[in-house]
Structure formats: C-alpha cells, structure tokens
Amino acid sequence: MTRPLLKISDVSVEFGPKANAIRVVDSVSFSIGAGEAVGLVGESGSGKSITSLSILRLIPDPPGRIVSGSIEFEGQDLLKLPANRMPEIRGRDIAMIFQEPMSSLNPVMTIGDQIAEALMLHQDLDRDARWQRVIEVLSLVGMPDPAARLGAFPHEFSGGMRQRVMIAMAVACNPKLLIADEPTTALDVTIQAQVLELMKSIRASVNTAILLISHDLGVIADLCERVVVMYSGRIVEEGSVESIFSKPEHPYTRGLLQSIPRLDDDRKRLYQIAGTVPMAGSVKKGCPFYARCDLRVDKCAAEMPPMFEFSKQHKAACWVTGEAEQ
Amino acid sequence: MGRMIGLRLIDAIPTILLVLTLVFVALRILPGDPAQVALGDMATPAQLELFREQMGLNLPLWQQYFIFLWDMLTLNLGRSLVSNVPVASIIAANLPYTIELTLVATGMGVIIGVPLGVLAATNRNKLPDSGVRVFSLIGYAIPDFYLGALMLIVFSLNLGWFPINGGGTDFLSRLHHVFLPALTLAMVKSAFLGRLTRTSLLEVLGKDYVRTARAKGARENRVIYRHGLRNALLPVTTGLGLSLLATLSGSVAIELVFNRPGLGETLIGAIAERDYPVIQAGAVIFAFFVVFINLLIDIAYIAIDPRIRVQS
C-alpha cells in the first residue's frame, strides 16, 4: 500500500492545568490518502474541531496541548517539527477554512491583501504575478468581477461571499490537504449548497485532499468518499460513505442517521438520541456511549471496546455488533 | 472622507457654544470684584464705577453674554486687567510652550507605552508582563508633580544634564528644556497606554481572524504586528485622545514645577489676580483644544477602521 498523505496515530489532546487535565481528544487515529476526501462527523463537543486544529498545531496553548501520538504528513511527523517550521507547512501544504466567515477575515485589510498575503508568504512571485494569481483564485471561487473587488473590505460582503474569499485564500497556494471546519454551518441553506458545489469543483480543479469536518451527514455524503465518526473525543466508527450509510455498525452512527429528517416519511416527531453528550473526559472507563446506548450490555460499562473490523474498509468500536460479527 | 470630516466639524459647533457659555457663567459666579482687584484697595467708588462702565460690567447679563460671544468668535480677546497687555499677545507668547510640551510628552508616551503593552501581551503572565504591570502601577500611583520634582533633583540639580528652568530659545535648546517635563508626563501616560495596549491586543489575539492568519502560515511577528496591533489600536486611539487631554491639564502643574513658561502657568497667575480677560481666553483655548483633539480622534478612527468609512 502506498503511503497516505496524512497519517494521524494515537493523538490525544488535553485541556486545562496538567494536574487535572481534561482529555478532549483520546487516542485518535485515521489517515487521508492523496486527493481523497474524508469526512469527520460528530456532535458539538465531540473533539472533531480540536482534532483538525491539532493537525496544523493551532490549538491555543495554554490551555490546550497535544500530549501524545504522531501526525505524519508525507512521512514527516509534524508534532516533532520545531514550532518555527510550522508556518512553512501552514497555508502552503495544508490550508484551513473555518466555520465563521463573518469573523475569520481581518476587518481592516482588503480581501485582495489577505489573499495576496498567503501567496507572498509561500511563493516567490513578483507583484504583478501575485495579483494575477489573486484574481485567478477569486474567479475560481465564483467572485463576480474579481479585479474590481480586490480593494474591498470584508464587511462589504455577505457571509457566503466571505466564505468564498476564505476558500480562495486557502487554495491560493494549491495545498495538498484542505481542512474545512464546518465551512457551511454558519450559512443559509441555499448558500450552503452553493459553497458545497464550489468545494466539489475546487477539488476537481486543484486536486487537493480534503478533510471536511461537519455535524451534517448530508454534507459529508455529498462530498466525501470516507467517513470518520467521533464521539466524546474518540473515534467510534470509520468506513466508506456507502458502507456507513447503508450498514452503520455503531449504535451512535445509527442514531445519527435516523435523526436525519426525510421528506418521504410521516413521523410526527424527529428521532433523537436519548440523553446528552457526556462532558469531554468525564467517561473514564468503558464505552463513552454507554449511558445513551440501546444495545448496551454489562461489558460496555467495564471496558472500552477496540475497533472491530467489519470489512476491509469498515471499522467500528462496539462490543455488541463487533462480537456478533466475529 | 472630506465630507465626514466636514460633518464632524459642524457637530463641534454646539459643543463650542456650550463651552463658551459655561466659561461665561463660571466667571460671573466666581467670588471677588474684578474692578476692586484691578484697581487695588485704594481706589475710590467713583474710579471703580468708571472702570465697570469701561469694561461693560454694568450692562445686563444677557448683553454681556452676547458681547462676550461676539468678542470670542472674532478673537477680540481684550487686554489684561493687570498689565494692560493685549491678551492675544500673552497667549501667543505662552501657548507654543504648552503645545510643545503636550506633543512631545504624548509622542514619548506612545513610544514607551505601546511597545510595553505589546511586550506584556505577548508574554502574558510571564516575567515581562509582571514587570510592565509594576511599571504601570508606579506610573499610576506617583503624582506627576512629585515625579517632576524628583526628576528635577536627580537629572538637573545633581547630574546637571538638563536645565533647571525656562523654555529655551532656539530649536535645540527648546528640545533640551522640554525633555525632562515631557518625560515626566510621558511616564504617567505610558503606564496608561501600556495597560490599554496589553488588554486590547490580548483580546484581538484571541479573534478568529488571527487564527486565520496563523493558518495561512504567517509567523508570530507578522501575526502580532500586521494582524493584531492594527486592530488593537482602535481603543488605544481613544485612550490616546483622553490622555492627550489629561496631559494638557497635567501640564499646568508640570509647568509650575519646572518653572516653564506656558498656558497653565499663565492661567494660574491670572486666576490669582482675577484677570478676567486672560482667564476667559485661557479657558476658551483649552476648550477649543478638547474639541479639536476629539475631532482628530474621529479622523484617526476613519483612517484605521474601514468599517467606519462606510457608515457615512
């Protein structure tokens, strides 16, 4: 098998003072191949955003820190890299799009300057070539009349347009991996669809791998080939979009899929998973989903289930479905 | 932009009228008879009456008010009751020293204060941060006239590096004279600006767009100075305007301590002698400065923050 583009192994992240730190991400491992699109799903507080921030080592320290594991990008462990080498990777090899387009752009810099800055930091272009490239990426993300908008400030744009600017900034240097942290969550539904379409076309034209973080399974099904499901800081299921959507093996994933409203059913109430997400790090022993699970047995409370392999592409951490499969 | 500045100027007119009215009323309420003070204890009632007649002090208050307004607007400031010198020339001789002191002090305050704030914010809860905090506390706690006296004793009397009094003549000697009093005022100012910069920068460094800048691959210096500081400067600009005003009034005490010519020193003398025309003119000029500085702050806002530009 060829080496994956990004290989995350056993990464754990803790927050708070060392003495009673809270483990927000617990031994997370997954990988992304070159050009592959992987979705990371989970509820708020499941640790998916922290996992994505840890790849670029952007977790605010203090209070957070990566306590163990390795994050290999093209064979090089990013966690072992000296901190002053990280800026060379950020924006050039791995770029990131954030959830809040309204606040993620610098209010006192023109959008042209903000995109040009990414190029200036990583590429040796002269002024004219740089501006040419800025106009190019702006038209790539569907900005109407890009040359005329270079001098505009972020507040002159709508949320959807700002997210396009963010995407333009992220793809300006043709990154090998694009991390998109809930890129459509803050947008109107119609704009969400446009931005998703844009992400797809970007993927086709830039040929970048994508890590899409979302709590919306529909968004992920639309864009990704593989899904990683997180719950309470742990990965509970991983597999291809087809296998997970057609045959989810973890009770949590099943619950998530059932919660999606459908036009063709006549339920009066939407399905909901009973209970609430346990506070990160509060489950010390056993399966973190135990308290809310329909299938639980005594063993689940005592011991954390390992990842059972259901097929070559499909793994899930559940004692009940896992042992039934063996 | 020109239109916005014009609008702000028009906004200033009611403020100036209000200030002129306050000055007028305050002076009429002030105890003491200006005629008595001007002519001395030996003046006869007839002389006093004649003086009041000449100065328009016998007219009804509302007439005095309009005459006062008209005089101020036409810059007809009158003559000093004490020395009979035109008030305009007294002001002209002293005002430049005060402006010079205020500007140099403010410049020094910014040069010392803002970098201290950046140092503190980027080393939060570490040694430099504590150092800056102690410096700020001292700056806040020491009264400026006391600090001025200390400076004078150490640097002028004992070390002899700076002159003891006066305002200087040519450019270099004026700079030499203004340094110590300006530094005194700047210590207080930089304590204030340092704290303000630290707070503001810390807040900005937690913003989403700062994370975006890091994710783009900007190095820490670039993140702090290019993305952080410019956004953090908005509240600092307000603080700077406020402290400019504080310096203007603080200069009164400092001018006395350093025995330096200036508006403050002139005003104190005039108040002691009930020299109405000089007090009036001085108060009005201070008030004009306040309005003018606020206008400058507004213009600085427009220059720093593009979002304000659009609102007009």
Automatic annotation (TrEMBL), chain A:
Membrane-topology annotation of the record: Peripheral membrane protein
GO cellular component terms, A-Z: plasma membrane
Name of a matching Pfam family: ABC_tran
Keywords annotated in UniProt: ATP-binding, Cell membrane, Membrane, Nucleotide-binding, Transport
Superkingdom per UniProt: Bacteria
Localization in the cell: Cell inner membrane
Signal peptide boundaries: none
This protein's record includes keyword Cell membrane: yes
SUPFAM superfamilies named in the record: P-loop containing nucleoside triphosphate hydrolases (SSF52540)
ABC transporter domain location: 6-257
One example of a Gene Ontology biological process annotation: peptide transport
MF (Gene Ontology): ATP binding; ATP hydrolysis activity
Chief location: membrane
Family of the protein in this entry: Belongs to the ABC transporter superfamily.
PANTHER family reported in the protein's UniProt record: DIPEPTIDE TRANSPORT ATP-BINDING PROTEIN DPPD, OLIGOPEPTIDE TRANSPORT ATP-BINDING PROTEIN APPD
Name under which the protein is recorded: ABC transporter ATP-binding protein
Lineage: Bacteria, Pseudomonadati, Pseudomonadota, Alphaproteobacteria, Hyphomicrobiales
UniProtKB/TrEMBL annotation, chain B:
Domain ABC transmembrane type-1: 95-297
Record-linked Pfam families: BPD_transp_1, BPD_transp_1_N
Gene3D superfamilies assigned to the protein according to its UniProt record, in alphabetical order: MetI-like (1.10.3720.10)
Keyword set includes Transport: yes
CC terms in the record's Gene Ontology section: plasma membrane
Keywords per UniProt: Cell membrane, Membrane, Transmembrane, Transmembrane helix, Transport
Family (UniProt): Belongs to the binding-protein-dependent transport system permease family.
Membrane topology listed for this record: Multi-pass membrane protein
Ranges that cross the membrane: 12-30, 101-122, 134-155, 175-193, 232-258, 278-304
GO BP, sorted A to Z: transmembrane transport
Name of the protein in its database record: Peptide ABC transporter
PROSITE patterns: ABC_TM1
Localization in the cell: Cell membrane
Xref: InterPro entries: BPD_transp_1_N (IPR045621), MetI-like (IPR000515), MetI-like_sf (IPR035906)
